[in-house]
Amino acid sequence: MEYTCAYCGRSYQTIEERTKCEEKCHNAEILKSKKKESDQRKEDMQKDYDELKMLETERDKLEKQVREKRTEFCEKYDTFEDNGFYTFLNDTFRNPFWTVRF
Predict the structure, then answer these.
(1) From the CA atom positions of the chain, what is the Rg in Å?
(2) Residue 78 falls within a domain, yes or no?
């Protein structure tokens, strides 16, 4: 009577030989599965990292544009920025009742 390995399909004369083959094939299948999971994780990690770097680059570009526009705005309207609020110097000096608080 022949005994066939459930994983690779090889035929053996004894159950012990088939069992050893199935054990070896099973361990190889587990290793293959773990490697596949590891490769998938690395691929997903790289994809997310690339997306993060792209967003950081876009953010840096937008921050540069904001700085340039802020500088242009301050020069155009003769203003300065203090703690995130714009104080309009022209209005301050034109209207004596206007008080500036810092």
Answers:
(1) 35
(2) yes
